Amino acid sequence: MIPLARRMLVHEWRRFVPAALALCFSGVLLSVQVALVLGIFGSAAVSVTASSADLWVGYPGTQSVNFGRPVAPDVEMRLRMDPRVHDVEPYLWLEADWQDAARSGGGVPVFVSGLQTAAGAMMFSHVLSPALRAALAQPDAVVIDRSEMDQLGTRPGEWAWINARRVQVVAAIAGLRALGGVNVLASLDTARGLGAPARGEGATYFVASLKPGSDPDQVQQAFGRDATFGPFEVWTAAQFARRSQLYWMLDTGAGTAVLFMAGIVCLVGVVITSQSLTSVVASSAREYATLHALGVSMRALGRVVVQQACWIGGVGLVLAGLASALLIWLAGSYAVPVAMSWEAALGCAVLVAALALLSGLVALRGLFQANPAMLLR
């Protein structure tokens, strides 16, 4: 029956175009939605993913990067005592109020990151060049995200105010977009001048790199059993990034809304696609009735419908993949927060394939009209 299903698709392809397009649109909606979710919630952990640190050390129970509380300076010494640790850096985080040079309008909430400006430092090493780090070493110098310049009302080279202290924007770069605010990078000294913990008060986080051959998971577990130097908790970079993203996705209710929308997309896709397939089956009822009168069982005819649904699913999947890739690329080029991983793309493909199969099973009811008696009318 496979050749019959394929030949019907080839010779009567116009009948199957609406079903293939319905699957394509369902796949595009699903994949773009996933890309937006990954992009938006991925920005909650941009401090972690844009840095090269292996371990993050913060206050116990911290749910997300932006909820950090100061940890004692002795924690840095505890980290350096471990022979597997290569280097340790303090990282300061504070929420602040931004105003443009003229102090016009209301303030903009910003997240100030205080980091080391030495060459080879770990924090934001994926987005900061050595020249930008050297520029940040200047007193009261800050770096902002390029896509936030209009919101901040400030361009590179211009002055602004953070917590009533005058700062100068030395550069605007890509890759700093944050969730719920605007990321601003500064040196440790500049951040302390804006209200971050003083030098003797510790830091919001300490980040560490490990020597080659060290397993971050094993080192993290070893630190997890040591509370001698005060309250602190150690996470690997992957753990802390995932922890921050899951908090915003699940604990804020946003993830529930996303899952609800994904369910709606799948339901609409099943309804539209199954209706398209049912109409195709119904329009071929006389042909199916003839085959049934010649001795072909309804079970075999049902397999033809399901095979057609699989072929349509394959075509719709390819079209959806191409269209989704184009749309995600366009969104990324206009600084829209989107991201896609191979795991997420594979999950979308599996869902679209399941949607096609389910639609084919629903369309089987159209075969009930294929009764040989209808040939006598």
Task: Please provide a written account of the structure.
- The protein has 377 residues and is of the alpha+beta class.
- Helix content is 50%, strand content 16%.
- The protein has helices at 2-11, 13-42, 46-49, 74-81, 130-136, 149-152, 188-193, 216-224, 237-251, 254-283, 285-293, 298-333, 342-363; strands spanning 55-58, 85-100, 108-115, 141-145, 159-162, 165-173, 182-187, 205-210, 233-236.
- A 6-stranded mixed beta barrel has the order 2-3-7-4-6-5.
- Strand 2 and strand 3 (108-115) form a beta hairpin.
- Helix 2 (13-42) packs antiparallel against helix 13.
- The two termini are 27 Å apart.
- The relative contact order is 0.19.
- The model has no long low-confidence stretch (mean pLDDT 83).
The ordered string of helix (H) and strand (E) elements is HHHEHEEHEHEEEHEHEHHHHH
Strands ordered across the widest β-sheet: 2-3-7-4-6-5
Specify the helix fraction band. 40-55%
What percentage of amino acids are in beta strands?
A: 15-25%
Unreliable stretches covering 5 or more consecutive residues: none
Shape: elongated
Between the first and last Cα atoms, what is the distance in angstroms? 27 Å
Number of DSSP strand runs: 9
Estimate the mean pLDDT confidence.
83
What count of helical segments does DSSP give? 13
Cα-based radius of gyration, to the nearest Å:
29 Å
Structural class: alpha+beta
> Major beta sheet, specifics?
6 strands, mixed, barrel
Topology:
Elements (H helix, E strand, L loop, with lengths): L1 H10 L1 H30 L3 H4 L5 E4 L15 H8 L3 E16 L7 E8 L14 H7 L4 E5 L3 H4 L6 E4 L2 E9 L8 E6 H6 L11 E6 L5 H9 L8 E4 H15 L2 H30 L1 H9 L4 H36 L8 H22 L14
Parallel strand pairs: 3-7, 4-6
Antiparallel strand pairs: 1-8, 1-9, 2-3, 2-5, 2-8, 4-7, 5-6
Helix pairs in contact: 1-2, 1-12, 2-10, 2-12, 2-13, 10-13, 12-13
Pfam family, one: FtsX
Protein name: ABC transporter permease
Organism: Aquincola tertiaricarbonis
